[in-house]
Amino acid sequence: MSTRAGIVITGTEVLTGRVRDRNGPWLSDRLREMGIDLAHITICGDRPQDMEAQLSFLRDQGVGLVITSGGLGPTADDLTLEVVARFAGRPLELDKALERRIADILEPLMKRWENLDLQAVRAANRKQALVPAGATVIEPAGTAPGMVVPPSDGAGPTIVVLPGPPRELHAMWDQATATEAFRAAIRGATGYSQAMLRLFGIPESEIAVTLREAESRLTGFGRLEITTCLRRGEVELVARHEPGAAQTWEELRAFIAERHAGTLFSTDGSTVDLQVAELLAGRTVAAAESCTGGLMAARLTEPPGASAYVAGGAVAYANEAKVALLGVTPELIEAHGAVSAQVAEAMAAGALERFDADVAIAITGVAGPDGGTEDKPVGSVCWCAMDAGGATLARELRMPGDRAEIRDRSTTVGMHLLRRLLRGEGPPA
Amino acid sequence: MSTRAGIVITGTEVLTGRVRDRNGPWLSDRLREMGIDLAHITICGDRPQDMEAQLSFLRDQGVGLVITSGGLGPTADDLTLEVVARFAGRPLELDKALERRIADILEPLMKRWENLDLQAVRAANRKQALVPAGATVIEPAGTAPGMVVPPSDGAGPTIVVLPGPPRELHAMWDQATATEAFRAAIRGATGYSQAMLRLFGIPESEIAVTLREAESRLTGFGRLEITTCLRRGEVELVARHEPGAAQTWEELRAFIAERHAGTLFSTDGSTVDLQVAELLAGRTVAAAESCTGGLMAARLTEPPGASAYVAGGAVAYANEAKVALLGVTPELIEAHGAVSAQVAEAMAAGALERFDADVAIAITGVAGPDGGTEDKPVGSVCWCAMDAGGATLARELRMPGDRAEIRDRSTTVGMHLLRRLLRGEGPPA
């Protein structure tokens, strides 16, 4: 049987949506890799009674491991350790050696700020050096230490207390999982496997019918835990299973690959971004964008090492910029409109030339909410991918969604056109 | 007394972090506007027993209103209505009129796909027309209807069931809140007020000391619920209070404004992005970027109506692009390196000229993880904001964080330089 886990994200700024939680998803991945079954993520504000209620809920659900994130900062609203100590029945004690180590970390950091109130720094320092009796300290990656807090009575969950800033949480994770208390909490975890398929250019309902058909054909189908979802314009299918069901998963994968050959583009978890990056090896790419306003270039330059293959991009938002930067002629814009297949093609050709690139992707469209016309309503977008040999792949669609969705999904279509062009394939279905 | 609410986000894709939840934050804002106190957000996968446990938890916490998001799709893993109907003690019944309305919505949508399996579409249609007895239907904005489900025994929470896609959820919200069942659930909510201050260029610990001092000086300080957090390189301070504490909040605001005059830039909730957009009225801006790879242009073009003031941007990732697009001389790059104050200044001047813009922001840096040197380690970034009159504001910093954080926060610094330049102010503290 697998250990069930829960994640508690604290912070009024997260509960009220001012700050996006990035730790839940990250911790979720780590737990899965260890074969730990994540059952619940809960989010509460900086109110001790609400956090305590969530911890009690997780204990009542039989959760053996709880990871908390946030609430370890220097301000008075940071209450996590106080709550966890009380919940676990382990009083807080000042760890003087830890207090000194934190002071050593703070000293150089504080030089950056002029006229700093050192008294404030010292008070914060002391608060962060309080440790629940019997807990294992995880050395800080920023200024806040983490803790692994075992249940005081042998029952109840082991609680791993980590700071909110993702970089610190990531850096401290390995140390946390190496503690004796953590190993004891996850004893007996079975290794679940997870596999993912990604498809582009297909509605989710088509996958649903394929799955229903597979259910009636494949023995052991019920041992696969399958979820599908739409994400940034792609359909993702994820199957989670115990080692014994690996054969059934292989059969399902083959069944889907056969039925959806034209739209299934990833069977190994790779994203289209990664595939494009690999296909570009030795070649350079440039972007020419209007409605996406830099998002296509930003997406191409997101992976580490992108400088090896990204030449650059032109954000030709105004028509004048399309002319000056990309050599699109005013006559062409006049004749067809800035959002047209012709202008997209001219932008791609211009980007190839200006950046001396091997392949280019151009996007022009109406992201809205204003600027739509009867002929070119909001969501009308034209793409053109072109290589230096003159091969092109063009597309023209009316995208659903609001301004942010149209901009974001337009980069997904751009990525898929690049992928197909680089693979020498025809236009998508 | 305020009605307490909970939000339940369902979907294995959200629990496992493959899809980011955007509904929790949005719903949180809406509830606050209505004076409803959000206590908990919980996230579960597509497992009915986990969702049911979360609903029971919220009921046990005295929550009077629960909003669920997701799990209304056509696939078999979409289980929300089944769980909610059982929890509320209201059996599911097929609503034939609703089934026809959904069919009418689906028909034109399905024309987009060739060779579609219509049987799959019809099966999905029927599933989405099942309604818990006594619930109020919310007409679909996509294909899935929502529901407002009152407790069958008069106790327990009223449950508002909404679809996962944010655009649909947004479009259906007003209809949901107008139902009699919803109004009954929130009767008695008191209007909390919330105000926000934003500061840039100050550590969080300095705000903590200011708050401690305010606590000892201002009567009624305890009636303010104050949280602070770091977000994209800025410090946000949020105060939530009942109407009677408005005067205390005004006093605190004045106290902070006096102590932090140089770093407090927003007292009305406005973001630096919005302020820059307003300051640009009648002027045009261009971006010249290296390490941010298009993110600065994307951020400038994010607000609706950005085409009125954004001329465009040059993503000069390769040195050749800095030369070809922005007129930076190879000699300058050779002499000072691509990441230098001199090259940033030349990029800004080049952007002003190429885009014929009134103001430009240039960013060049080492986002990592590779490419750092002893002299210019990862995180070294140079900015230059320049206007057509020749006024400049430059900055050179070593940014903490990983590649994504360095890229993102570099755009925040860029925004603040633009803001100060447009206001005719000097460099930030």
Structure description:
- The structure is a homodimer of 429-residue chains.
- Chain A has 429 residues and is of the alpha/beta class.
- Chain A has three domains: 4-186, Molybdenum Cofactor Biosythetic Enzyme, Chain A, CATH 3.40.980; 193-266, Alpha-Beta Plaits, CATH 3.30.70.2860; 272-422, Alpha-Beta Complex (Maf protein), CATH 3.90.950.20.
- Helices cover 40% and strands 23% of the residues of chain A.
- In chain A, the strands form four sheets. In chain A, strands 2-1-3-8-7-6 form a six-stranded mixed beta sheet, with helices on both faces.
- The first copy, chain A, starts with a strand and ends in a 7-residue tail after the last helix.
- The mean pLDDT of chain A is 91.
- At the A-B interface, helix 1, helix 2, strand 2, helix 3 and helix 6 of A face helix 1, helix 2, strand 2, helix 3 and helix 6 of B.
